[in-house]
Amino acid sequence: MSKVIIKNGQLIDGNGGIPIEKGIVVIEENLIVFVGNEGDYTDEVDEIIDVEGATIVPGFIDTHVHMMMEYSSVQSRLETPFSYKFYQAIEYMKKTLDAGITSVRDALGTDLGVKKAVEDGIVEGPRMQLSINALTITGGHGDGYTTSGQTVELLQAGYPGMPDGKADGVEEVRKKTREMLRAGAEVIKVHATGGVLSATDHPEFTQFSLEELKVIVEEATFRIGVKVMAHAQGAEGIKQAVKAGIHSIEHGIFLDDEAIELMKEHGTYLVPTLLAPVAVLELAKETGMPDSAVQKASEVIEIHKESFSKAHKAGVKIAMGTDAGVMPHGTNLRELALMAEAGMTPMEAIVATTKIAAACLGWEDKVGTLEKGKLADIVVVKGDPLKDIASLGDQDTIQLVIKDGKIVKNLMK
Asked: Would you say residue 290 has pLDDT above 90?
């Protein structure tokens, strides 16, 4: 079995400690076999990758993406054949890898066949944890009903392998949770509040009842150990989700002090997606965003940043997620600069995108840090991201991407 050494770069291992100058990582097949100072390694190697002047980091992790979509106008969606989106996803997945994202949690819309195609090597893509589709109430976030009375879904469901997510009442949500699990869900996604993109609700509106949320957690987490993630933006909906035992709060725009204390008490993760409302405004004209979405995004950006800052200062566990698909795939790491602007140090932002993100997915034994025995997910970036965290948002900064021991991007040739 061949051994490859990556040497001569600043090494950030993802644990948050002081970087190693001139550190090395040694790979054998798809595993890391050594991390540390070059002088401490004496075995033979078969290949040397010299990354002088660059920084070696773990493969980045985005805990909230939608691999099967990029937001487009209603007319475009109506004119696009159903199967076309699977071919588009090939490009989205490659762009995600090119950004240095080697693992993702898909927050709805990607079915088991797409994951299997990546795992079997038919197409290249990040390692995926699937939610299949999100549970939502009639008229809530995720219900494609429009004010004209027509229904135009953002992502088509109801085809084999992609159950529709609408459910009302305890017994309907119980059955719908079981349907998602049957379809291959590795995490259950629920819309606990309204949202920015939906026309018939508001981010502060609470959706499922506490009883309904508890049943979802009972069916997924208590019965078979599958965690639940909740799109939750309003304070009351966030608190209900945490009390129900939900594992992570997605977005968390209107966090209040009580919600933050509850999250700390329960060990609940926050996945802030600061980039999502920013992208809504940036892409409004180009993609035909509805006026309601633009207005709501404008209202929440500063509130969102303030909530993030309060949660960070209070010590809430924060894992990086972007809502990629609302914005173009491959721009994921723009999120890190926004996290830094809202109070994180550059190192904290990197840890949120590596070690903490891996723990949020329950994959901390496999990825997230550069340590002996973990999968060889490694990224080499130009320069020093601790001095310029925003540079990671530029794909040209991402020089080398290794996923599971295989080079999937190389600009260092």
From this structure: no
CB under 8 Å, gap of 24 or more: what pairs does 304-309 form?
304/251, 304/252, 304/253, 304/272, 304/274, 304/277, 305/274, 305/338, 305/341, 305/342, 307/252, 307/253, 307/254, 307/255, 307/272, 308/252, 308/270, 308/272, 308/274, 308/339, 308/342, 308/343, 309/342, 309/343
CB atoms within 10 A of CB 147: 9
State pTM to two decimals: 0.95
pLDDT of residue 297: 80
Q: Read off the pLDDT of each residue in 248-268 and give the average, rounded to a whole number.
A: 98
CA gap 345, 308 in Å, rounded: 13
Looking only at the bridges linking them, the beta strands covering 60-65 and 20-28 are unpaired
Catalytic residue numbers read: 189, 323
Query: Rounded to an integer, what distance in angstroms lies between the CA atom of residue 37 and that of residue 63?
Result: 31
Any bridge partners for residue 21, and if so which? none
